[in-house]
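Per reviewer request, we include the raw input and output of the structure prediction for the construct analysed in the revised manuscript.
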Amino acid sequence: MSNDRLSELLDDIATDLMMVDSPDDPELDQVRENTSELLSSVQVLVGLEEGENDLLKEIIDLLKEAEEILADLSEQPAEDFDFSLDELSQTLEAVEPLLRDYGQGISDSDEQAETEEKKSDTESSYDEEIETDSEEPTVTAPGSYDEELFFDFYSEASEHLQEFEEVALRLEQEPSDSEAIDRGFRNMHSIKGMAGFLNLRQVNRLSHAMENLLDLFREGYPLQSQSIDVLLSSLDILKQLVNLHHTTVETGNGQSLPIKKIHTATRQLDEELDRVRSFSPSEEPRPEAEEPQVEDVSLKSGQQIRIDLDKIDSLVNNAGELTTAFQRLKKAEEMDERDRQQLMNQLDRIVNDIQEGSLSLRMIPLNKSFSKLRRLVRDLARDFDKKVDLNFSGEETELDRTLVEKIQDPLVHLVRNAIDHGIEKPEVRREQGKPETGELNVSACHESGNVVVEISDDGAGLDPDDIFETAVERGVVQAGRELEDDQIYQLIFEPGFSTNEEVTDVSGRGVGMDVVKSNLEEINGRVEVDSEPGEGTTFRLQIPLTLSIINGMLIRVSDQRFVLPTLDILESLRPDASQVTTVEKRGQVLKLRDQLIRIVRLYEIFDIEPENERLDESLVVIASGVHEPVALQVDELLGQQEVVIKSMGEAFAALSAISGAAILADGSIGLILDSTELG
């Protein structure tokens, strides 16, 4: 038998092993058959050799050891199966280099060159690809795998990749955490197996190399920061590969990545593997790690979301109660007033429970979004030579999945801003009597039907005078205008605004803070800033629980009704004539507690016949505007209620003062006002 056939058998064994999850898998039988055939073939080669061949003898010993492990696998308890499977994989992996050395030693003839060329899975194939292809080779092929299977893989792989990043950052702080090492190993082992099943060859190879390095740490070899750097850089390449495959499946267009990047990552892992092996493993026994709890939620974008079964059961139970109540409602005419009222109360409760239950299906905890910030803080702190301690609280707070995706960019920009502008370098903090390590706190909580996310630091704080001067220089505000500190802080969210004189990779162009504001406005949220020079800054994001339903105040202007989100309302009052005055270039304003607030007459904006033009005979609702509050003149406040937001389509996109519409209780349409556009 040729050496090519032996290599093919070994490759088949490795591929089948990737798909084995239990002793009952049929691939395990195929592994047994191929291992037996491989052993027989090598024994035939021994017989053909004129003298003893140490390489072949070592291969035979390894294959016999593999057969013994295979024989015991079917009788192993479930908790020992994975360990034995890993032991089997390592044993068979040790055969490959020996077989390669044997093939190289046969002769220097063309047969040797042909054999080496066919080994597409070895490191030399990467060298050939780099030398012969200077362009970016396509590493994904449209239609090469089943879409449904791939999306399942993508969902699970996304979770494993995110968890692995958390594990790596945790190990950087606690290198001896055996549970974290086991978790990271399982992450890469799972990705390797799934990628092998789908024939995602580059993903399989890279995750396998990462798994091998982690396995050394499981054996007790020392884990150093250099290994963490290599694992994280390899993780970035692995993420790119997985995302490229995902884009290919979604668009049908093959995506490409320079093969040199994959080769470099694999080479670095191999070199790190050799470096770690140069040390001696610890003699201390490793504690048994507990199995990790399965997360209820996947943050996979655009495809799936995992839901707690308790939520489904609750929704089904409420649907059953609704059916029963509806049957009773058909006989409402036969009931007395007391029974009818009891039935209506029951229906009201059931409908509210179903509404809340339905919304909760889209709710996911913020812990995944928060966890992504750990890597960002680590890298930025290194780039800026700063020491930062990142703390989380309230990460179990749940928010609509769409909103979680929308606030990810604002969180990233605010954290970057805190490290770049806020937290000082260690030597500066020492001079100011502060600890060398800066504190960066990210928290979340429910407040008044909304979610509030706070990002605070103990850094330099904001200088309102500096901000105002910069705003005047850039024409954002007029010189001499009097603004409160909280109004001045809002100026940093203007497009292109930056107090940085130097443009860096992180800041200086005035783009990031504008993204914070615009993203929050898209979801009817807002941001507040509180800062103390020399003490630190806090950014407070107020976010609605969901985009589909808002809590609003129903207001009447003449015969038209509008909905104003309660989040935008500051207060309401009936002013007297002495509070209304006219200011040059600002028109009529309302004087309220020494503050001049611009008056907005809704009947003029929407061309409605006014019921009353006099402000002192109307109601005024003070609402948040762009930079300062606005006073909306209305005829009547009809009450607070929850409304379902309906999109008005592209035909009404030009109506900037309207964010949507709602069907009111009587079936009529109420327009939802956007106070930031009115101001």
